[in-house]
Amino acid sequence: MRKEKNITIPEIRVGDTAPGFVLALAQMNPQLKSLSFSIYSPMPGVHERLANSPERAAANRVDDFLHHDNSPNEHWQVLVSDLTHEVLREKVANLPSHLALALDSKCIFQDGSFKYIPMMDFKPPPNANNLELLKQLLERLACRGIIIDSGASYHFYGFDFFDYAQWREFMGKCLLAPWPDSRWIGHSLIADGGDLRISATELKPKAPSVCAILR
What does the DSSP assignment read for the chain? Predict the structure, then answer.
């Protein structure tokens, strides 16, 4: 733990799972008022779905790629002052096994303004070479933060909150590289904010955990 202006800030460590790194992210900026979370049912990726239905009409396949609908998702907003390890663990523990909890990138500051946690979903599977590649990419983008092993790929959470223009620029720069998930970026831009899974489910049984820290 470390202290800044009489506020105790948890340290993020490699191996930390969601309750640890989310709480630390929440407390890094004393101007942060609240975080939002989504509760949703993970689905197979669109390419996986298309591979399992090769005889579908072209129009239906195009519709599958363009589909964007997060209206069934439940949303949970919590004040940073009320957020604890126990609150997060209890929220996850009480979810049905087919549902996941995701942290939303869009958050509210004490002055009522909206900011964004820089987040990114990547496509390469976890291995040493891919991790080094993504570390180099994020360093070139001057992004401090953590890389998360989600089981099938990597996620990124930044330490520095962005305003809307900075967030859009970050998303655009990530599109210039082949490793970020362009569909996740597209969904995030449409929704005016992205989210990333922080709990395990039946379909995605690995709890996301910190595998690298970029300072």
Answer: -EEETTEEEPPP-TT-BHHHHHHHHHHS-TTEEEEEEEEE-----HHHHHHT-TTS-HHHHHHHHH----TT-EEEEEEGGG--HHHHHHHHHTS-TT-EEEEESEEEETTS-EEE--EEEB-SPSSHHHHHHHHHHHHHTT--EEEEE-SSSEEEEESS-B-HHHHHHHHHHHHTSSSB-HHHHHHHHHHTS-EEE-S--SSS-SPPEEEEEE-
